[in-house]
Amino acid sequence: MLGTLNGALEVRAISLPPEDISADVEGINELENGVPVLTRILVRYRLRVPGSARERVERALERHAAKCPTAASLKGAVEVEWEADIEETD
Fold it and tell me: How far apart are CA 28 and CA 37, in angstroms?
């Protein structure tokens, strides 16, 4: 999902160096018939962006999951959630 988000930002003329875009990902397992099954993934993005780009970044965040091959592959089987910590650099 991070790659898809980065691509969505680049389409909006926002190119971030690797140290300004990262994600922590947590998988949640639940027991189903005694078997641990991945049921949810939480992606926490950390972004450092120019203040002038804030609105474009928020639009990219709102739309990126719908274009993400990983999220599409997991749809219906694993719930994917995301949140973002956005720091403005200007």
Answer: 8
- What's the pTM value of the predicted model, to 2 decimals? 0.87
| C-alpha distance across the termini of the chain, in Å | 26
d(CA 80, CA 90): 31
Q: Is residue 71 within a helix (H) or strand (E), and if so which, with residue range?
A: helix 69-74
Q: What percent of the chain stands above pLDDT 70?
A: 100
Token pair recorded at residue 13: 């003329």
DSSP 52: G
**Top-level class of domain 2-88:** alpha beta
Q: Which residues pair with 83 in a beta bridge?
A: 44
- Which residue's entry shows tokens 């078997």? 35
Q: What are phi and psi of 15, to 5 degrees?
A: -110, 115
